[in-house]
Structure formats: C-alpha cells, structure tokens
Amino acid sequence: MNPEVNFDKLTQFLYSIIRKVAIPAGLYIFLLFIVSAALYFFGFAGLLGSPKAFLQITDPKELEALFLDNSIEILILNTIITIVLNFFMSGIYGMILESTYNPFFGIGSALKIVFSKQGLKVLLFIIVLQTIITALNYFFALIDLRMVGFAIGVLLQFLTCFTLPAIYVDDKGIFKSIGFSTSVVNSKPAFYFIILLMAYLLSLSGILFFGIGIIFTLSLSYFTTFCLYLAAKGQFKD
Question: What are all long-range contacts of 77-84, with beta carbons under 8 Å and residues at least 24 apart?
C-alpha cells in the first residue's frame, strides 16, 4: 500500500494534469462559485422574507443582528451549501480521469461523474463528514474551545483525504475507501500532511492575484490528492 515512489514520475504526471485540466477546472470552479453565491443570497433573503429586504441592509450592525438572531438557521444554510459545493467540486476528479484518455473533456466530465453511482456514494460520505464536523465545531464553540473543534475537523478531513479518489477511481465502497485512506495516511502521516498542506496553501495562493486567480489554483489540491492516491496504489514505483 505504500511502495517506494519515483518522485520524477509522480511530478511529471502531476504537471501533465495541471497543464491539461487547470483551465477547464478553473471555469468549472468559477461556475460553482456563482451558484454558491446565489444560494447564499436566496438563503439570506429567505431569512428576511424577500431579496429586496436583504439588499436594503447597509448598516454592518443590521448584518450583525441578522447573524445573531438567526445563528442556527445560518449554520444549517452554511452546512448545506458547503455540502453542495464540496460534492460538485469533487467532479474535478471526473475531469482528471477523462483527461487521461479523452482530449475532449470538460465541465460535462465533472457533471457526469458526480451524477453517477460513485457520485451518490461520494455525496453520502460528504453529507456525513460535513455534518459531523459542523456539529463538533458548534459544540466546542459553545464551550469556548473553537480551536479544538477546528483541529478535530482538520484531522477528520486529513484522515479521509483519499476517500473520494478511492470511490471515483476504483469504485470502492464508502467504508473500504475510508479504511484505505486512513491506513495510507497513518503509514506516513508527516509526509502526507506536509505535501497536502503545501498543495492546499498553493491552491489558495490565487487570492493574491486580485482574488480571481483562486479559480485556477484551487484545483491544485485535487490534482495532488489524485496523484498521491495513485502513488499509494503503486503506480509510480521505481
């Protein structure tokens, strides 16, 4: 499960994915951001009764009062939108997979995989994981231990980071995918943590390019996770 990796092969494969998939994935992410913004807008508008009432908020104190008076509703709204966004973002794996054999891949490749049998398993996993993380964060926030809740959430996401590739690439079951992911991560936790953290920070670096750059860099963490998953299976042996 953890063979010696030829990092030259791994790096070349990662570079080829970035070269082929980064721009289509960026356009896909841009569309998802628009959809997410619309969901938040109509969600907040629903709390106030109408879109017009939400647009009329100009005082920061009014916005703060909205958050305080509807904290549970906003928490639920944020959880739902996060689940939806993470689910559709996982479609990037569909783009990566199709790019390896079809030069004419695109947004349709992402939608095709999320609306597949594997996509249903991914959705169930994301719903459970995000609900657990949200519940933990809420509980620890109530007792003034927000950082503890945040740390546990990060740990859960780290341990299960290879679950989605395992489902999409090899059509493993949810529990087998979680088991595979945790065993791989636990075999070399420092190695995977450093690599994935670097990929995550680089994926956020697009914010520095007037914010809009993030739509083209955010997919980097998906590319890296995909390559590391293949490496854990032994694809890049010496």
Answer: 77/40, 77/43, 77/44, 78/134, 79/130, 79/131, 79/134, 81/36, 81/39, 81/40, 81/43, 82/130, 82/134, 83/123, 83/126, 83/127, 83/130, 84/36, 84/39
Amino acid letter at 31? L
Q: How far apart are CA 205 and CA 59, in angstroms?
A: 31
Q: For helices 189-204 and 146-159, what crossing angle results, to 10°?
A: 110
How would you class 217 by CB atoms within 10 Å of its CB: exposed for 0-12, middle for 13-18, buried for 19 or more? buried
Enter the tokens of residue 7.
């990092």
Contact 153, 217 (CB under 8 A): no
Q: How far apart are CA 85 and CA 79, in angstroms?
A: 10
State the 10-residue block means of pLDDT for the chain, 238 residues long.
70 93 94 95 88 82 82 92 97 95 92 97 98 95 93 96 96 96 94 92 74 80 95 74
Q: Which two tokens stand for residue 135?
A: 């519940």
Angle at 224 between CA 218 and CA 227, to 5 degrees: 145
Distances (CA, A) of 23 to 20, 40, 176, 219: 7, 26, 32, 10
Task: Quote the pLDDT of residue 49.
Answer: 84
E strands in 74-230: none
Task: Report in angstroms the alpha-carbon separations of 224 from 16, 44, 139, 192, 220.
Answer: 12, 35, 32, 10, 6
